[in-house]
Design brief:
It comes from Oceanisphaera avium. With 112 residues, this protein is mainly alpha-helical. 36% of the residues lie in helices and 6% in strands.
Amino acid sequence: MNKLITSILLSTLLSLSPLGYAQQSTPASDAKENNNAVQTPSDSSNAVITSININSATAEQLSLLSGIGSAKAAAIIDYREQNGPFNSVDDLSKVSGIGERTVEKNRHLLTK
């Protein structure tokens, strides 16, 4: 009976141990740097987005944001090219298809 309990505990511990070694995802690892459009911590080998400059980011970089796909990223760039640089992060809501909720979801990542 004691061996059975020990075996069950050991099996449980061994089956759960790989969960502690899960690799952190790195959505910014494929993003190309463009005039410091995407800021990442320099001391980390696993890049994590800390900010995206809405006035210099590429469509690929903008599409890393929540609720922004390739079409909305292209719309941001088109708006920026036609109207000049954004004066504030809130100006993103002037882009067709981008509402205030999308801006709020990403505000912590956005700079101008």
